[in-house]
Design brief:
The complex is a heterodimer of chains A (582) and B (186).
Chain A (H helix, E strand, L loop, with lengths): L5 E4 H11 L4 E4 L6 H7 L7 E4 L3 H15 L3 E5 L3 H5 L1 H9 L4 E7 L15 H4 L6 E4 L6 H13 L6 E6 H5 L1 E4 L19 H13 L3 E5 L1 H5 L3 H11 L3 E3 L14 E4 L6 H9 L2 E5 L5 H4 L10 E6 L13 E4 L2 H8 L9 H9 L4 H4 L11 H11 L5 E4 L3 H9 L8 E3 L9 H9 L7 E6 H4 L6 H6 L5 E6 L4 H10 L14 H7 L3 E5 L5 H10 L4 E6 L24 H5 L12
Chain B lengths: L1 E9 L4 H11 L3 E9 L5 E9 L8 H7 L4 E6 L5 E12 L5 H10 L2 E6 L3 E8 L1 H11 L3 E7 L3 E4 L10 H8 L6 H5 L1
Antiparallel strand pairs in B: 1-3, 1-4, 2-3, 5-7, 5-8, 5-9, 6-7
Classes of the chains: A alpha/beta (582), B alpha+beta (186).
C-alpha cells in the first residue's frame, strides 16, 4: 500500500492493516457478516495465507499455537453470533496463558445492532472477561487505528487476546485512507518502563544473603525472552531452578541446577526445596493454586521476590517481600552483575537427598504387562532425540509429558496450562506448524481430548500439515478417573469413554495411521512416521489404571505429596485397579 | 467495611460495564457509584463506594481496575482524609396542617424545597451520608413518595497533596492532548 491517499473498503483496510502488522497466516471460518472481508481476501492471497478451520474454537487455538511458538501475534477470524461465541474458549485459553492473539469477528450491520438480528450477539460484551481488551468498530475512520492498537495491546506488557468486532456495513463502506503512522497514544495502558536502582540493590542483596534460595521459573521467562538471563543468575549464585508447567523449556532440563516441574504433579524434591527455601525468586509466574497447594503452609520460612509484568498478579495469591513490576529480562540484566559467585554446595546436597527413593518409585522402573503412558512419552523423547516441538493436551498424558519429556529449548512445549482446555493440542499444533515448518512436531493427546476437537483432522489434511499425532488411549478420561479412584472410592462416573477406530479414522482423512500396544514397537513405528510427509496418527493402547504420581491433592500442603505406593512398586509392576490411597 | 475508590476513565460506551464486573468478581457489593464529567475533556471521574468484609483482596480491586485500557487512574481513598458528600432529592406528601412542621425541619437542616405544590414537595439536600439519613428520618413523619440519592462523591482534602491526582499530570506523561472543560464549552 502506498502512502498516497487511495480509496479502500473497510474489508480491504482489514487486510492492509494485517499485512502491515506482519501477519502471514490467518486462521478462520467464513460466514454471513464477515463475507465482505473474505471476498477482499482474494486480492491479498499472495501476501496472506488463510487456513480454514473446522470450528471457530479450532481457529483461535491455531492462532494461539502459532503465537506461542513464534512470539508473534496470531490472528483468528470468524463470523458473528455462533462464530463469535465459539471463539470464547480459545480467547479464554489465550487469556489464562498470556498468549497474544487478535480475533476479528464480523458483526451485523451497525443500523440493526441491538435488535436481535440474525446471528447477532454482543460479543464485545461477552468477551470482556476473556480478553485483554475488546473493540467494537462503529466508524470506518477508526478501523485502521483500532487494528493497530489491538495488535499493540495484544503483544505488549503481559500478552493476551484482543477482540475486534466489525459490523458488516463498516466492512462494505469505503474511505480515503492512509495507514496511521503517528505515535500510538493509549492513555489508560501502561506497560512498565524501567526499574529503579533501589529495587535492583534490594534484589541482589537478598540473593547474596540467602542460604537456601530457589528460582521459580514461569511462562514469563519465555515471554520475556529471558532464558539466558535466568540461567546466568542461577549459575552465578548456584541457585536451583524449578519451573511451572508453562515455564518448561525456559531452562534446559538437563542442567544440573534444574530440578524439574513444581506443584501438584511436580517433582517431590522441587516441592520440598520450595517448602524449605529461605528465598523464593519468582520469575514471571503467578502462584497458581496448582503450584502452591495450601497457601497457609506455602514456603513458610522464605522471603519472596516476585518479578512480574502484570501488577494485578503481585500480592494476589502469595504476599511477597519484594515486588518488582517490570520486564523480567530487563530486571535480571541489571541484577546479574551484582550477584556474588557462590557454590551453595550444602543446599544443593540437601536437595539431592530428597531424591532418595524417587528413582525406585519411578513407574519406568516397574515391569508392566501392558504398555504405560509414561513409557510412550519417554520413547517419544528418545525417538525425537528431545528435539521435537511437543503440543500436549490436558489430562494425565499432559502431566506425564511434563515429567518424562525433557525439554532443552524454549518454546518447544505448548500446552493449555491455566484454563486446562481439553482439545487444545491438535488445533494448536496445526497453528504452530505454520511457524515451525522444518521441525518435527508431535501432538500428545488423550483419547478424551482428541475427541473434543477431532474435526480439525480435516484442517490438517487440507493443509497437509506436517504433524504427528500420538493418542495415548487408556479408554478413560484418565485424570478424572484418577481423582475418582483416589478421592471418590473408585466410583467411575462417566469416565469410561469409547473411541472410534483411530487407524481407520486416520485413513478416512487420508493420513497414515498406526496402532502400537507394546514398548518394543514404539521406536520402529516412530521411524516410519518420521519418513512420512504430511500428518500421521499413532494410537498407543496403554494401561487403563495408570496413575500420575507424585500428587499433591488439591488444597493440601505442597510437601504432602502422595508417592507411588510401595506395594505397586514391589508387585512386579501390577498396577492395582482398586488401590486405595487415603 | 466501606471502601472508597476514585477512578478516572475515558468516557466511552461500555466503560462502566468493564469496571463493575471486577467488583462482582470479588463479590463486593457496590454501595454507590457516581460518575460525571471531570475538568478534562472526554475524561469521567467516578466515585465508587463498596461494602465488603474482605480483608485480603481489597488492594486487588485497584490493580485490576488499573489494568483496564479505558481506565486512566485509580485511587483508593478509604484511608485518605477526604471530603465526602451526597446529594439527595426527596419527594414528600403532607397533610394540610403539616406545612409548618415541614418548614421547621427544612430550616433546621441543610435543605430546601425546590419544587412545591400544595401538598407535595421536592426537597433538595446535600451533605454527608449521615446528615442525609437523619433528614430522611425526620421526614418519615410525613409520607415519603420518592427518594433519589446521588451516592457519595469524594475528593481528597487540600492538605493531602500527595494523594491528589491531576489529570494534567497523566496527560504530560502520555502526551494526551487535553482540553480544559472551559475550552470545550466555549
Amino acid at each position: 500500500m502506498s502512502n498516497k491517499k487511495q480509496r479502500f473498503t473497510g474489508a480491504e483496510i482489514i487486510w492492509e492493516c494485517l499485512i502491515r502488522e506482519g501477519v502471514e497466516v490467518v486462521f478462520g471460518y467464513p460466514g454471513g457478516t464477515i463475507l465482505p472481508t473474505y471476498d477482499a481476501l482474494n486480492k491479498y492471497r499472495n501476501k496472506v495465507h488463510h487456513v480454514l478451520s473446522r470450528h471457530e474454537q479450532g481457529a483461535t487455538h491455531m492462532a494461539d499455537g502459532y503465537a506461542r511458538v513464534s512470539g508473534k501475534v496470531g490472528v483468528a477470524m470468524g463470523t458473528s453470533g455462533p462464530g463469535a461465541t465459539n471463539m470464547i474458549t480459545g480467547m479464554a485459553t489465550a487469556m489464562m496463558d498470556s498468549s497474544p492473539i487478535v480475533c476479528i469477528t464480523g458483526q451485523v450491520s451497525s443500523s440493526v445492532i441491538g435488535s436481535d438480528a440474525f446471528q447477532e450477539i454482543d460479543i464485545t460484551g461477552a468477551a470482556i472477561p476473556v480478553t485483554k481488551h475488546s473493540y467494537l468498530v462503529m466508524d470506518i475512520g477508526e478501523l485502521a487505528s483500532t487494528i493497530r492498537e489491538a495488535f499493540y495491546v495484544a503483544h505488549t506488557g503481559r500478552p493476551g487476546p484482543v477482540l475486534i468486532d466489525i459490523p458488516k456495513d463498516i466492512q462494505n463502506d469505503s474511505i480515503e485512507f492512509i495507514y496511521p503512522e503517528d505515535e500510538l497514544i493509549l492513555p489508560g495502558y501502561h506497560p512498565p518502563e524501567d526499574v529503579s536502582e533501589d529495587y535492583i540493590t534490594k534484589f541482589s542483596t537478598m540473593v547474596n544473603q540467602a542460604e537456601k534460595p530457589v528460582i521459580l521459573a514461569g511462562h514469563g521467562v519465555l515471554l520475556s525472552n529471558a532464558c539466558s538471563e535466568v540461567m546466568e543468575l542461577a549459575e552465578k549464585s548456584s541457585i536451583p531452578i524449578t519451573t511451572t508447567l508453562l515455564g518448561i523449556g525456559g531452562v534446559p532440563d538437563s542442567h544440573p541446577l534444574v530440578l524439574g516441574m513444581m506443584g501438584m504433579h511436580g517433582e517431590s524434591w522441587a516441592n520440598h526445596a520450595i517448602q524449605e527455601a529461605d528465598l523464593l525468586i519468582a520469575c514471571g509466574m503467578r502462584f497458581d493454586d496448582r503450584v502452591t497447594g495450601n497457601l497457609k503452609t506455602y514456603s513458610p520460612n522464605s522471603k519472596k521476590i516476585h518479578i512480574e509484568i502484570d501488577p494485578s498478579e503481585i500480592n494476589k495469591n502469595v504476599k511477597v517481600d519484594l515486588a518488582i513490576h517490570a520486564d523480567l529480562g530487563t530486571v535480571l540484566r541489571h541484577v546479574n552483575p551484582q550477584i556474588i559467585k557462590l557454590n551453595r554446595k550444602k543446599w544443593l546436597d540437601i536437595i539431592s537427598g530428597w531424591h532418595h527413593d524417587s528413582k525406585r518409585r519411578d513407574i519406568l522402573n516397574i515391569k508392566s504387562d501392558k504398555l504405560l503412558g509414561a513409557q510412550v512419552i519417554r520413547k517419544i523423547w528418545e525417538g525425537t532425540k528431545g528435539n521435537a516441538l511437543i503440543i500436549s493436551d490436558v489430562g494425565q498424558h499432559q502431566m506425564l509429558e511434563a515429567q518424562y519429556y525433557k525439554h532443552e529449548e524454549p518454546r518447544t512445549l505448548l500446552t493449555s496450562g491455566g484454563l486446562g482446555t481439553m482439545g487444545f493440542s491438535l488445533p494448536a499444533a496445526i497453528g504452530a506448524s505454520f511457524h515451525e515448518k522444518d521441525k518435527e512436531i508431535w501432538v500428545i493427546v488423550g483419547d478424551g481430548s482428541i475427541q473434543m476437537t477431532m474435526m480439525e483432522l480435516g484442517t490438517a489434511m487440507q493443509e497437509n500439515t506436517n504433524i504427528n499425532i500420538a493418542i495415548i488411549n487408556n479408554g478413560y478420561l484418565g485424570m478424572v478417573r484418577q481423582w475418582q479412584q483416589m478421592f471418590y472410592d473408585s466410583r467411575y462416573a462417566e469416565t469410561p469413554i469409547s473411541s472410534p477406530d483411530f487407524v481407520k479414522l486416520a485413513e478416512a482423512y487420508g493420513m497414515n495411521g498406526y496402532r502400537v500396544d507394546s514398548i518394543e514397537d514404539i521406536l520402529p513405528t516412530m521411524e516410519k512416521v518420521q519418513k512420512n510427509s504430511g500428518p500421521s496418527l499413532v494410537e498407543f493402547k496403554v494401561e487403563e489404571h495408570e496413575i500420575v504420581y507424585p500428587m499433591v491433592p488439591a488444597g493440601a500442603d505442597l510437601h504432602e505429596m502422595i508417592q507411588r505406593p510401595w506395594n505397586e512398586v514391589n508387585n512386579n509392576g501390577q498396577i492395582q485397579e482398586k488401590e486405595k490411597v487415603k | 467495611m466501606k471502601q472508597t475508590i476514585i477512578v478516572l476513565v475515558q468516557n466511552e460506551p461500555g466503560v462502566l460495564n468493564r469496571i463493575s464486573r471486577h467488583f462482582y468478581r470479588l463479590n463486593y457489593n457496590i454501595d454507590s457509584i457516581t460518575a460525571g464529567r471531570s475538568e478534562a475533556m472526554g475524561i469521567t471521574r467516578i466515585t465508587i463506594v463498596c461494602n465488603h468484609s474482605d480483608q485480603y483482596n481489597q488492594s486487588l480491586i485497584k490493580s485490576q481496575l488499573e489494568e483496564l485500557n479505558t481506565v486512566l487512574k485509580v485511587q483508593d481513598i478509604t484511608r485518605v482524609p477526604s471530603v465526602v458528600r451526597e446529594y439527595a432529592l426527596i419527594k414528600v406528601q403532607i397533610q394540610k396542617d403539616e406545612a409548618k412542621e415541614l418548614n421547621k425541619i427544612i430550616k433546621k437542616s441543610n435543605a430546601k424545597i425546590i419544587d412545591g405544590g400544595k401538598l407535595v414537595s421536592i426537597i433538595e439536600t446535600t451533605g454527608e451520608m449521615e446528615e442525609i439519613e437523619s433528614l430522611i428520618n425526620a421526614l418519615k413523619q410525613f409520607k415519603i413518595l420518592e427518594i433519589m440519592r446521588s451516592g457519595n462523591m469524594a475528593m481528597v482534602k487540600v492538605n493531602q497533596d500527595e494523594h491528589r491526582i491531576e489529570i494534567e499530570e497523566i496527560d504530560k506523561k502520555k502526551g494526551w492532548a487535553t482540553q480544559q472543560l472551559s475550552d470545550a464549552l466555549s
